[in-house]
Structure formats: structure tokens, C-alpha cells
## 1
Amino acid sequence: MNSLPQLKIILCSPRGFCAGVDRAIQIVELALQKYGAPVYVRHEIVHNKYVVDGLKTKGAVFVETLSEIPDTSAPVIFSAHGVAKSIPKAASQRNMFVLDATCPLVWKVHVEAQRLFNEGRQVILIGHQGHPEVIGTMGQLPAGEISLIETESDAKDFQTDNPDNLAFVTQTTLSLDDTAKIIAILKDRFPKIKSTPKEDICYATTNRQEAVKQVAPKVDAMIVVGAPNSSNSMRLVEVAQRSGCTKSVLIQRAQDIIWEDFSSLSSLGITAGASAPETLVEEILDAFAKRFTLEVSNHVSARENIVFNVPKELRNKKND
């Protein structure tokens, strides 16, 4: 009987769901329990197909625009990524019953952008064009009043008539290192540029990237469990590659593993983006256990105990 090859697996911790994702999913599930199906959700509640498909089977209906929703008294939920100010306004005009699942840390960026604009500052957003969080943040201010910078090149080329009155905010799921370089360029070019009092990149993004930085140099390959449209998951792949693990890949499900790529490993790191459930990590571990004799360890770089409350409409009366 042939024995299976040995494989050392290091699990990055923290990994997977953050408090904002956990809250958003809870909002959909609690709304379904309280009000019954259907519950309408504008955009994927979080960027993970497994999660979205699971909620669909329970009665959630996902749409990209409010116009897709019929006149209804059913709850309409905004995703964790946040929305432009025009969206709640349009919902109100149709008398929709809205439950807002915007992550509180994204909401904080919205508030800061508005505050800086109210101070008369020209606001810059560092982020990725087209990402729903960026669309939502830019939509907090009047059209044309917030400028998007994606790259170091953008930061070098940015022009303004008011260099002494600039301010910036950032998307919450960016690469810490990339963003630091962009900010350094802006501060060098515009010494009076103002930032928010606290870092906009969220604690979960920071912690997951730090864990990957610590594990990546120790392993032959790294798997990031997550979705290709998940910004924080894609950044984890980049961080792993830059930290010395060139064979770092994004995988959604165990069935997506290309086994030839992992045939000659002695060590593997695994992490998960903030919208990827732990059950998918377990699924991938099970798949490797059929082909290798595993030695699994946990590398803990931080501990997270943050919890965000769901909207009051969904709270248990005795907990109010």
C-alpha cells in the first residue's frame, strides 16, 4: 500500500469572515426569518458565490438596481459595500422598507468624505474604479467633487488648482503597502494634504494581510480562498507573492484546484478573504487530505473580537 506524501499546511489566522461581512449576512438571514421570502438584496450582499447562492436558496433575491424590484412591502437590503446617496433617496421615493447592511467601517469613510467636503476641501479617494465600495463612496458627494486615484502613476499625475486644501480617504480593502506608497507621493507633492483621523483600511484587511506576510516566506505555495471580484481576497494573493511566495493563487472551491500545480509541495499556506466562509477552507483541507498526509498548524498574528450590531428592526426585543 502506497503511503501518501507528507504536506505541512499553515493556516493563517485571522482569516475569513470579518465583523462587517458577518453582520451583513446576518441581516439577510434575520430578515428572511422575520419577514419571510422574498427579501430583496441590492448587489451581492458580500462578494462570495457560495454565500450568495446559499441565501438565494433561502429566498433572497439579488438585483443590481432598484428598478428590478417590484412595488413591494418586502425588505430591501443594501449590501455591505455601501451605496451612493441617490440609492436610499430613490428607495424612499418608492416607500421601500430598507435595511442597510453597509459595513460600519465603510459608513465611517462616507462620513469622513462628507465632513472633509463640508470643510471646503477637495477630496481624493484612493481605490479601485468600478468596485461597489468606491461607487458608493464617490456617490456621497456631488458629481465631480471627488477624484479617484488608483495607482502611484495617478498620484504623480494628479493636478489641482487648490494644492493647500486637499484631503484623502481610502477604500477599506486595499493593499496596505500599495496605499502607503500612493499616500507618500501625495504627501510629498502636497504637504498640506489632510487625511482622516484614523486609518481607512479596515482592521480585517490589515490583519489578514499581516498574517499572510508572516506565513508566505515559510511555504512553497499559498492558497487564498475567495472570489475574483473580492478586492480584499485579490490583495491577499498580491501580498503573498510580494512576500516571497510566488506560487500564490486564488481559489473559490476545492473543485477549482489544479492539482498538477500542487504535486511537489512540502508546505502550503492557506488563508481566506473576509467574505469567504470557513466551510470553504475546510472543504479545501479535506481535498488535500485525500492526496497528502497532512500536518496542519495555525499561525495566529492577531485576535479579533469585534462585533457590529444588526439594525434595530431585526434585534430580539429582549436584547434591545
Note: The chain has three domains: 6-17+203-300, 19-103, 105-195.
## 2
Amino acid sequence: MSDGFPFDILFLGLVAAFLVMQLRKALGRRTGHEKPPPEIFGRDIVDKEKQSDDIIQLSGSDYKTTDGDPSSKQDMARKDEELQRTDEKETIIGLRDIQIADKNFDIDNVLKGAAAAFEMILEAFAAGDKPTLRPLLSDEVYDDFMLAIRKREESGEILESTLVSLNNAEILEASLREHTATLTVKFISDQISVTRNTEGEIISGDQEHIVQMVDIWMFSRNLRSHDPNWTLVETRSQN
């Protein structure tokens, strides 16, 4: 073991602090009771009637409790905290492994790139812009997107989607398998989404209301590739 400064411990500490700060960011609110946008993104709508504005629901944090047994609630809460700590530890280890394998890997830059890709993909999907989508998506995700676009075109429907603001982007999971790095990012955004029929009438959504959306996307990149871009390989909800 080297007698020099333990840079790996410092890196873990900085990454841990970054993740904690990201998890504590306050969320916005949803207004209105709109029909959800297309399910292709595996997204969730934050419902202000069911969820307090002061609570951030983390992956793996949903559990049921019984009203008559406080100790049972405490046990479940304790197990949930242990699970959260385990997930955070695995994420930190994954980020460290990626950093070691790719000296140019920078969390801030990757998140900025993910945010840019998020906006570009949303706009391209709504517009049916296949050439823009092709290099940003894996083959499987691209096929799913094309199927949704074809169905929309065949029915004569038009999707109008506006990203009002991207409120938060945080890394939920990170891993390195052989030479392939994967990052799971949760995006919390305010959007306006409206679907119109062939007559231009709105059949879903509300152009006057902003909806808060939660999207969880997994990006992947071969670290031995000269292409610096990350590819969207999976979309899912947080449940």
C-alpha cells in the first residue's frame, strides 16, 4: 500500500457528499389532473393529493405499515434505511470503478450531457424525428420508440410536448461490467403534453397546465469506444 495521500478515499467522500446533496433537493408540484403522456418512457406523475410536497420518494422506499404496531413500523423503516444505504454504497462503488476505468469521467459533465440528451429525446420523439433518435438510443429502445411513433402516425394523432423546466437530475445507480459502464438517472421535470386528433382537437393532456414528471432512464457506454456519447438503453418508472 502506498504511503501517499489516499485519493480513492477522498473521491468516495466527494461522491457521497454529491449524492446526498442531490437527494435532498426540493421537488416542485404538479398542477391539474391531466391524462398521462405516452407510457413509452415508463414515467411517473407526482400526485400532490397522494404525496406530501416535503417528501422525496426514493427507489425502494415504499412499504406498508400496520396502524396498531409501532414497533413493526420502526422495523420496516430501519430495514428501508439499510436498503437505501446499501444502494448508495453500491452506486458510489460503481462511480469509483467507472472513474478508475475512464480518467475523463466527470459526474457533473455526464449529468449535463444526460440532461441535454433527455431534452433532445423528448423533442425528437414528439416530432417523430427518427434520424435524431437513432444515435441516441439502443436498438431495443429505438424499436419501441418507432412502434409508438408509427401507431401515432397511423391514427393521425399529433403529440405536442414542451419541456418547461428540468428541475433535477440525479444518479440512482452506477455500475461497470467488463468495459461497459451504466448509469441510471432520475429526471424530475415540468412538462406540458397534449395529444391532438386529425381535426386538431385535444384528446389528452391540457395545454394550460404544467405536469411534474418523473423519468428514470438508464444510459450505457463502452469505455473502450472512441465515441464519448452515452446511449439510452432502458426507461422505467420508479415503482
Note: Residues 70-101 form the longest helix (32 residues).
## 3
Amino acid sequence: MSGIPLSDPIPYVLSNEACEEALNELTSMQDLLRWGISRMNEANLYFGHGTDNARDDAVMLVTHALHLPWDIDHAWQSSKLTRSERQCVIELFARRINERMPTPYLTGEAWFYGLPFIVDERVLIPRSPIAEIIAARFQPWLGDKPVHRILDLCTGSGCIGIACAAEFPQAHVELLDISFEALTLADENISRHQMNDRVIALQSDLFSAADGQYDIIVSNPPYVDSDDMSCLPEEFHNEPELALAAGEDGLDLVRIMLAEARQYLSDDGIFIVEVGNSWPTLEDAYPTVPFMWQEFEMGGHGVFVLTADQLDECVEALKLK
């Protein structure tokens, strides 16, 4: 995740009476889209789990409830709905507002790197800007070097590793995570994208299950510090805390990863990690390490790249203290 917004101190509740009124008086898809957008804006929801506004969130919920593609032609919005269809739509809006449940958990799907992924409350919802780096084939750091093995550390849903496998069809990819529940879902996504022959999910405490060396090690680990955890919007509290919280300064896992990554990285390999809002703290903690911070066209921040050579040069600075 990138960016930590402030929480809403006064929760809004969508009443049963308001839902019943909508059910009885609204008839078309357009009616329900407008109503849902108005109610979500009134509730001051946080949008940051695949969309950044109420309209896009509403489209996702309505089309999911009606078993339609999210990019359906606008002409369909005038279509009238049956009472049971309206009921399904309204129930989704009520959960989105009253439970502050992120939309991808309600639809069971999130998009990353242009691919759909199964998601639920076992995993963090995919939203890392690392997708842009994958789509750019890790250039310019990778050059024309062949990629044989890729490691996705703290994989969650498996979205980063599976996207890497899609971008590098000759590579074998390992997805490591400490959460057995997350790995079960990652396996579902591996099967969904028919990559069982090249992608494997393994339970691992950071690098403990890693074997040998990898051309690319990439990770979106937990990195939220204690102050930010205390003021997250309610939507984030529906995600697993294990995938977010990383100690007082947000660097509990990243410190270990920096100390151990080189032994699992090939001599011309690259190491990519997202640390989000914790990037200034990381810079202060390692002032001599030449983190290469990335800029993103689609938004996001706090992702660094280090080469194997740079890790070698900084071996003393990166030792655990």
C-alpha cells in the first residue's frame, strides 16, 4: 500500500429505512449507481483499494451484483432491474458503507498488472505500484540479462509473483509467505492463471524456505509503523494486520530482508522492495545505502531498487545491529 490517510472519526450508517426506500422507488441501473455514489460520498468513505472515487467503486459493485462486466456499455445503464437484483445491489452498498468493507472483498476480485486476482480477507488487496516496474521488465537495471528464477517475498495473494511470471514466461517463480491462509489463496490464483508448472507457493518466515539464488527478488512486505496503524481508515482494518503492521518504525521485516537478501541474489541480480510511507525512516536508518527510489506514472511511492553490487558495497551498513 502507498500513502496512509487519516481515519474518519464519525462513522456514517446506511439505515434500513434508506435501503427500503431505494428498493421501492429506484428501478434502473442508473438509478442505483446514482444512489450508491451519493450514499458513499455522504458516508465519507475511503477509496484506495483499486479505485480512488465513489463512482468507480459503485460501478464495480453494481456490475458485480448483476453479473455484468465492469466496463459494460453505458447504454445498458438505463436497463430496469428486478426487485431481487435491486436487493442484491443495495445489500452490497450497505456492506460497503456500514462495515467499511473494501469493494474487492465484496466482489472477490482485484486487478493488478492488467490481470484479475481472487481476493478475500486472508490477504492484502493488490495495489502496489511495483506493477509498473514489472510491466517495464525491470528496466534499466535488468538490461538484456536472462531471467531464470524470481522470488516474490511476502507474496500475499501472489499477484506480484504471478505478474512476473506473465512478463517472463521462461522464468520459474517462488511465492513465499508466513501465512498459510494467504498461500492457500495464492495457490488459487496460480491455478486461475494456469501457471502451476512454473509458479510455486511455499510457507516461509522471510527467506527461510528460499533455495539457491534468484535473478530478481521483489517484495511488498508489511511496512506500516505504529503511528500510522493507529490512524488508518476503517477499510484497512478489514485487511489482515499481519500484512500491514511492521513494528514501531515500520521496518522490522525490511531490516532483516536487507541483511539477508544478498545471499539469495545472483551476482547480476536486483532487489526491489516497497516501503511506502516508511521510506524517510529507512533513509535515516541507512544513510550510506544508495537506495534508488522510483517514480510512477500511475501514482505511488516508497519503492527502492538495489543491485547485487550495491548490496555487496553496503554489506557492513546492512548488517543487523
Note: The chain has two domains: 16-107, 118-318.
